[in-house]
Design brief:
253 residues, alpha/beta, 12 helices, 7 strands
Length: 253
């Protein structure tokens, strides 16, 4: 997630590479990332913790160990922006008392500047700091400010959602291949169909059901396809998947 955020910001010149320090866990990660990014990389987190703004992007299970290594933070209550799934501001503030904490929930389309990010502010984060953080994430997509309880369903829909879309795109392309289409063409057309469909919903302000009704004529091909999907429980499966991801986010917190 850190790479998805930093790569477009560095490419667009919105961050000065000379002022970015990154700490990684292993020498293997260091060697893999060093050719990709013109920033200071090391396996020693001390210099990263000395920064005025820290982006915390580790697994939630690693949080306690990472917090134990925060021995020399920058003076003056620096900002800590956490992208950890589910980890609450209250816990972050307890683990990093020298920082002003912010929770950010971005998704991987930030890599192509089509991301969605939700922000929730911890105690003491000033209005000017909020505007600066929001502008940083706005450079890679849309930003919304939410109350902390709303971050779990936001994560389930927008951060886990791309994986669900990937599964659907693969299955749709496989279906076209099974019906006789060359695989390369099927893999090209499936995302193009999705982009066009989403653009139609957004630009015409359509309810999703209206999109279905526009192409579902009586006893037609779409009606046959929708019958199969309803019989297989696609609608229920997607609903339960989002709920399960949201509940898992709460558990990780």
């Amino acid at each position: 997630m850190a790479r998805a955020l930093l790569q477009p910001l560095l490419s667009d010149g919105l961050l000065d590479p000379g002022r970015v320090r990154a700490a990684v866990a292993t020498q293997a990660s260091l060697e893999r990332l060093r050719p990709l990014h013109p920033i200071e990389l090391s396996c020693d987190p001390a210099r990263a913790w000395a920064s005025d703004v820290v982006l915390l992007a580790v697994k939630p299970q690693q949080l306690e160990a990472v917090a134990a290594g925060c021995t020399a933070p920058a003076p003056g209550q620096p900002l800590l922006i956490s992208v950890l799934a589910g980890v609450r501001l209250e816990r972050l503030q307890a683990l990093f008392p020298a920082h002003r904490c912010i929770r950010a929930v971005p998704n991987t389309p930030c890599l192509v500047r089509q991301g969605l990010t939700a922000l929730a502010w911890g105690p003491g984060v000033e209005a000017a700091q909020q505007r600066w953080v929001a502008s940083l994430f706005a450079a890679v997509g849309r930003v919304v400010e939410l109350s902390e309880p709303q971050l779990d369903p936001f994560l389930a829909l927008t951060s886990s959602g791309p994986a669900m879309v990937g599964l659907m795109l693969e299955a749709l392309a496989d279906g076209a291949v099974s019906a006789g289409m060359p695989r390369a063409l099927a893999l090209e057309l499936a995302p193009a169909m999705l982009r066009g469909s989403c653009a139609l919903v957004e630009q015409e302000a359509l309810h999703p059901s209206a999109l279905k009704d526009m192409v579902m004529s009586p006893a037609g091909t779409t009606a046959a396809a929708v019958r199969v999907l309803e019989r297989a429980g696609l609608r229920s499966a997607l609903l339960e998947a989002v709920v399960a991801a949201s509940e898992r986010s709460r558990e990780l917190g």
